[in-house]
Amino acid sequence: MTERIILCDFDGTITKTDNIISLMKQFAPPEWEGLKDAILDRSMSIEKGVGDMFSLLPSRQKDELVDYLLHTATIREGFGDFVQFAKEEGIPLYIVSGGIDFFVRPLLDGYGPFAGIYCNEADFTGPFISINWPYPCDGECGNGGCGCCKPSVLRSLSIPVGAEVIAIGDSVTDLEMAKVADKVLARDYLADTCNELGIPHIPFESFHDCVEALREGVRA
Which has the closest alpha carbon to 211: 6, 19, 68? Predict the structure, then answer.
């Protein structure tokens, strides 16, 4: 049987809502909306837009931000079963997120271990939050400014030749990953954009749908 690996997004995929958007709606001044729109219409890079959005938030609010998400973010139905399915099938599951470490890791606590968690990092040492980008675009990424560049992360992994790469996501941060994956499970913005660009994909709403899609792949 062909070996498989899974690269799964976090915000809006594992969680029901995009946590960066949730934070901005709750805590940021109105300027964040223009930055968000520029990211979505791809006139501004993800790295630039997300960095600028977080620079609107004072570092002293860190505990308040974390507490807000821990009490409001909801994990999508079936995620625990999906993690268990991947474990039973021996499929490495990587979380590859354009989100930020201070909320990604706490919200994933209790679901792992995972083959790896890749996300951006917040620096609270200055008066306003700044974002560090430990997984930038490599020389093969033609997009530039991805922030956490998911295709570059994929290329950095030790993947067996011929392994099937499965990408799961929902947003603009997942588009470049979807372009290089062998199988794409998509919802929301990513599903719409895959339709526009002719990228084959399987729609999903819950992780039970994802388990079923991957089981169908095994039976096929």
Answer: 6
